[in-house]
Amino acid sequence: MKDGTIYKGMTHDFDPASETFHMLPAEGGGVPVRIVSDEMKALFYVRDYIGNRDFVARKQFAEAHAADRRAIVKFKDGEEVWGVLGEGADADNQGFFFFPVDKDDNNIRIYVIRTALEELRLVS
Predict the structure, then answer these.
(1) pLDDT tens digits for 74-83?
(2) Do the bridges between strand 20-25 and strand 80-85 make them parallel or antiparallel, or are there none, so unpaired?
(3) Between the CA of residue 65 and those of 5, 19, 104, 117, what are the distances in Å?
(4) Secondary structure letter of residue 65 according to DSSP
(5) Domain ranges for the chain
(6) Other residues' Cβ atoms within 10 Å of the Cβ of residue 3
(7) Of residues 91 and 33, which shows the higher confidence score?
């Protein structure tokens, strides 16, 4: 979230066009949390909830990404992610999908909220 809060869980009703969705807690059971999309920094689709605090993502593009729309996103909180733009990146909506370039990253894809960005830099 933009305020630094982190929710870990699953969602079955996220829709980029919707203003809200629900997050089911990762621990199992519990009450779903209603999330207001504009209050989010991003929605991170992850391989696992534990992650690796010591992981440092590679900050370079491989030749395999030459045909993709490569970019660097920098969030207002200072986090920077290198990757390729997905659907909605050119549209005038609240966010877009972004795919980290490092195959070892715990993030599979990210739905980035535009108002949480400091910078979106295209890389040729």
Answers:
(1) 999 999 999 9
(2) unpaired
(3) 32, 32, 15, 23
(4) G
(5) 9-122
(6) 8
(7) 33
